[in-house]
Amino acid sequence: MEKITKMIVINSSKLLPSDVAMKLYETKDDIMVKETCFGIMVSGERAILDPLLVNIRKLDPYGIFIKERGFAPGEPFRCRATRRGGARPGFHNLETEDKILPHIAAALKALDRGEVPGPKKKTKKLDIDKLKAIIKETEVSK
Amino acid sequence: MKVFIYPTNSLILYDLVERFGHEPLAIMQEIGKKVRTQGLDSPPMNITPEDPKFGLKYAAVEVPAGVRGRMSLLDPLLTKAEAAIIVNDPVISFGCMGCARTNELINFLLRGKKIPMLKLDYPNTEEDAKLFVYKISEFLKSLKPAEEKK
Asked: What's the number of domains chain A is made of?
């Protein structure tokens, strides 16, 4: 059986990582759970984890985001405790995407409501004549 | 259907593909296979001197070993890919994933595969995000689920 690790990133106003951890412990499945600053890491057999995480996602479908992780929790080559601190590789991507997660959550809600977004508004570049006029206006007379 | 995602470690793309009922192909799966094998010869990623040799399938021997090593990791994903979602110029391609030549090669190979492909930009506002998610959902709906394909 293939043993995998999944990251549960929580971006929710009504759910804490500890709540998800408790739900995971309640299942009594053979899994390893680790709370982190961004959410939870779960390690276990793929056959156990995949259906389990489908149920965990239902706790807050718009606030829970899940992806797989190559390394197991606490892996000495990745864990910052054994690498003298600093962000672990991969954290920067997570941090960048974490900033967009509220927008994605809102978009998922809109999708479920059946909203069809309009085409993307293109921002026009500043017209050269307008720029010249602005320069002229701000010029200090000698 | 197996959907290749780029950036290959993206949380948002992995989650959306899985959410809409397809199988995401991400680099974490391949790294996981490498680091879970018994006896770690070359930590942390366990990329051994053998790996750049596998990369020769895609790049010539004069090409830096970094490109070939990365390609050996990405080869199983590219081979399995039946569709692809690509984010144009992601910020992260400037960091650890920032081998520009590998990234260009991946995009080139995907275009050559003639598989259904969706190209997008990362959203910065809520309106952009709505369009981003809508486009991905419509694209994934248009693909046949894995069971139906069989």
From this structure: 1
Crossing angle between the packed helical segments B65-80 and B27-36, to the nearest 10 degrees: 110
Residue-range domain boundaries for chain B:
2-149
Tell me if B126 and A108 make a contact (CB, 8 A cut-off). no
Smallest CA–CA separation between B31 and chain A, in Å? 5
CA distances (Å), origin B133, targets A106, B85, B90, B138: 10, 12, 16, 9
A139 found inside a domain: no
pLDDT in tens, A58-112: 999 999 999 999 988 888 877 777 878 788 777 888 888 999 999 999 999 999 9
* ipTM value for the complex: 0.87
Of A75, A97, A121, the CB nearest to B10: A97
Segments forming the whole domain that contains residue A32: 3-113
- In a domain, residue A57? The reply is yes
Task: Please give the model's pTM, rounded to 2 decimal places.
Answer: 0.88
Look at domain B2-149 and name its CATH class: alpha beta
- Does residue A109 form part of some domain? yes
Whether A103 and B27 lie within 8 Å, measured CB to CB: no
Assess contact for B49 and B67: CB atoms under 8 A: no
